[in-house]
Specification:
about 280 residues; Neuraminidase; 5-stranded mixed beta sheet; globular
């Protein structure tokens, strides 16, 4: 296993999620800062839009607009020409906060949900994965998922892989023509690692943010770990590949007490590592 080191890029965030590389910049959601930011490769950050009900997953649509997961009100919000508008309301379908997401090339969005009251320290429950189609269709496409989190689409759009945080594994599905999911199977057992955000590289390997362990690991299908980044005791929240050659791994970390997050303590930061295999553009 190869060990990689990081260097700082940007800080002074509350809690970051949903990193996406788009149009030469990193886009991130400051969940408890209620703001979506862009960050340039040299660390210059800019607030793009405020999302009062906590932003998370970011989805760049075929028309170039951005659809943002709004967690607490369980809606997807579209940002177009600087204005937010409702894209889809999932509140009648899901009783708890929604979280990360991934967008297919045809505009289908797959959205995970907590499944229980995380911030109220509720008893963990299994959860579901919801499909939101451009025609307005909203339907459950998978259930009994142990805290669905980061997701990627691979195999030329034919396979979805999702992180099951409390299941300590990556789970794969075939994507059918209508967007439904089938042939559920294990992509990788992760032992004690609790996967949060994930991203895909050009060789089909997946970079995993191991939240509780404070590590970013590169995992092959079947579970072999080829590379590792140790945050030094910090939380590894999410990651994505980007940069001019696609070989910069942007790592979102949290350095503080988790109970301080809802209070607005600004303990989140972004660091980067240089990797050997470029990103594949998902999420």
């Amino acid at each position: 296993m190869k060990e990689l080191t990081t260097k700082p890029l940007a800080d002074d965030f509350v809690f970051l999620e949903g990193p996406r590389w788009h149009n030469g910049k990193l886009w991130v959601s400051d969940m408890f800062g209620n703001t979506v930011y862009t960050v340039t490769p040299d660390g210059e950050k800019e607030a793009v839009v405020e999302v009062p009900k906590r932003p998370s997953g970011l989805n760049f649509m075929p028309d170039g607009s951005l659809v943002i997961v709004s967690m607490a009100d369980r809606k997807l919000m579209r940002l177009s020409d600087g204005e937010l508008s409702e894209y889809a309301d999932l509140s009648a379908h899901l009783p708890h906060d929604i979280n990360d997401s991934v967008c297919a090339a045809n505009g289908n969005i797959y959205v995970g949900t907590f499944g229980y009251d995380v911030f109220g320290h509720g008893e963990p429950q299994s959860a579901s994965l919801t499909l939101v189609k451009p025609d307005g269709t909203i339907k459950t496409v998978a259930d009994d998922i142990q805290f669905p989190n980061g997701a990627v689409i691979t195999n030329e759009g034919k396979t979805l892989v999702i992180a099951e945080t409390w299941g300590c594994l990556l789970t794969a599905f075939d994507i059918e023509e209508d967007g439904s999911l089938s042939n559920r199977r294990v992509f990788a057992e992760l032992g004690e690692y609790t996967p949060d955000g994930i991203c895909l590289d050009a060789e089909g390997a997946i970079w995993v943010s191991a939240f509780d362990q404070g590590e970013f690991i590169r995992v092959l299908e079947g579970g072999e770990i080829t590379h590792r980044i140790d945050t030094g005791g910090k939380r590894a929240v999410a990651c994505n590949l980007g940069g001019t050659d696609g070989k910069t791994l942007f790592c979102l970390i949290y350095d503080g007490d988790l109970d301080d997050i809802p209070k607005g303590a600004r303990n989140a930061k972004i660091v980067t590592a240089t990797v050997e295999v470029a990103g594949a553009g998902s999420p």
